[in-house]
């Protein structure tokens, strides 16, 4: 049932886009194999539901803020609202550790997104986080979370490189902001 809810959330977000709708497909359409591969990976992540979708949306939104991808922040904020993430949580992303808007599990997921998005993404921090994650989640859930964060890094950096602009999906609601 989670898959149906996530698909509806995506359809709703894309349906609310107001401008620049063809930026990314305009670029990737020039290389159909890249467009197809992107669609396959996006679908795989959308249909993978071992992990609570709300946690995945939080991780993606945190990553998008750290990479400063305006398109990703726009769509991520719209998807976050649909997944039940509160406006307070969206506003508090840059200071999630001190915020009372998140529970311990959400803070752990956000810390993982932050550690994986830093350059270089290696070191004891990730090993310690992985151990903590494995105390709360199964290996398949941790794998899904790591794949989600890694893909958001790829998405955000590709969008930045190609100049993909926000489409207005989150207009009228709280939108996450780029982080320093």
Helix content: 55-70%
Structural shape: globular
The number of E-state strands comes to 0
**How far apart are the first and last residues' alpha carbons, in Å?**
37 Å
- Tally of helical segments: 9
Alpha-carbon Rg, integer: 16 Å
Which series of helices and strands comes N to C? HHHHHHHHH
Structural class assignment: mainly alpha
Tell me, rounded to a whole number, the average pLDDT: 90
Task: Name the assembly state.
Answer: single chain
Contiguous low-pLDDT stretches (5 residues minimum) are none
Major β-sheet profile: none
Strand content: under 5%
Write up this protein.
With 180 residues, the protein is mainly alpha-helical. It is built from 9 helices and no strands. The longest helix has 24 residues, at 139-162. It is globular and about 45 Å long. The termini are far apart.
Q: Which descriptors apply to this entry?
A:
180 residues, mainly alpha, 0% strand
Quick overview:
This protein is an all-alpha fold and 180 residues long. The chain has helices at 2-15, 23-28, 32-47, 53-67, 70-82, 87-91, 104-117, 124-136, 139-162.
């Amino acid at each position: 049932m989670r898959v149906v809810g996530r698909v509806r959330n995506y359809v709703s977000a894309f349906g609310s886009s107001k401008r620049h709708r063809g930026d990314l497909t305009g670029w990737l359409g020039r290389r159909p194999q890249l467009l197809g591969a992107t669609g396959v990976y996006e679908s795989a992540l959308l249909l993978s539901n071992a992990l609570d979708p709300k946690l995945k949306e939080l991780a993606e939104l945190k990553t998008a803020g750290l990479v400063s991808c305006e398109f990703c922040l726009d769509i991520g904020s719209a998807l976050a609202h649909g997944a039940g993430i509160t406006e307070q949580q969206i506003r508090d992303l840059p200071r999630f550790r001190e915020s009372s808007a998140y529970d311990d599990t959400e803070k752990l997921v956000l810390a993982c997104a932050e550690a994986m998005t830093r350059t270089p993404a290696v070191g004891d921090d990730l090993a310690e986080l992985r151990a903590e994650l494995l105390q709360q989640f199964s290996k398949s859930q941790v794998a899904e979370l790591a794949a989600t964060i890694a893909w958001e890094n790829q998405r955000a950096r590709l969008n930045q490189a190609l100049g993909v602009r926000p489409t207005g999906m989150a207009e009228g609601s709280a939108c996450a902001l780029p982080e320093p």
